[in-house]
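Database export, one record per block. Field names are fixed; values are copied verbatim from the stored entry.
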Amino acid sequence: MSDAQIVTYEVTGKVAVITLNRPDARNAVNGDVAAGLEAAIDKLEADDNVWIAILQANTTGQERPVFCAGADLKAINSGKAADLNTRRGGFAGFVYRERKKPVIVAVDGLATAGGCEIVLTADMVVASTRSAFGLAEVKRNLIAGAGGLFRLPRIIGRNAAMEAILTGDPIPAQRAYELGLVNRLCEPGKAQEAAMALALQVCTSAPVAVWESRKIVLASDTADDATLIQMTNEGFGRVLQSEDTKEGLSAFIEKRPPNWTGR
């Protein structure tokens, strides 16, 4: 199967839809998935007409839906473990990939191990009630090596993350929603639809302001206040210099919806 088939990229309006497409392998990450997902993020970042992305998975034919089972153990066993990482993106070509545009992940099934770490890298999470999120590595004498050990406690708190990580047991969707990992819960089979609704809601806001705001929110995890104040001031300056600032003010005065350009 080619990269283009294993990870698909489609655009609907201002929204890119990226799909992991290895349902027969529980969407496990091999070299083709890593290369394909990084290429998809490259397309997202390069297209000025696309403002946000949804990352989803094809679960067709699966008895128990799996968003992503993590690393492809067959690839690792055949000596291709290095292929699961890219130079810029790390695991799956995604978990350490720098980007300015937000990604919403739509989960309708189990996201475990590296699959959960892909979810933790996204900016917002939409999940169906049959979903679950786990870092099961300790059950196999491994550790979560793609950001999960520090991203999960940042999102749900240290004690809840410690329990999930040390037991290796998955967090059900309802509990993940209560802990703040999931933004929106939906019925099974409706995650992609709910994620698109959220993406379109974000697209009503000015894209430059969205991108600058996202940067500072992410930095708030690790940066001190002085750094964050400087970033805020610099981001505010860039927003004011954009063409959309005038459009936003004019639309407010004229009592009409703004026509954003992203410039």
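Remark 1: The first strand starts at residue 7 and ends at 12.
Remark 2: Residues 225-241 form the longest helix (17 residues).
End of record.
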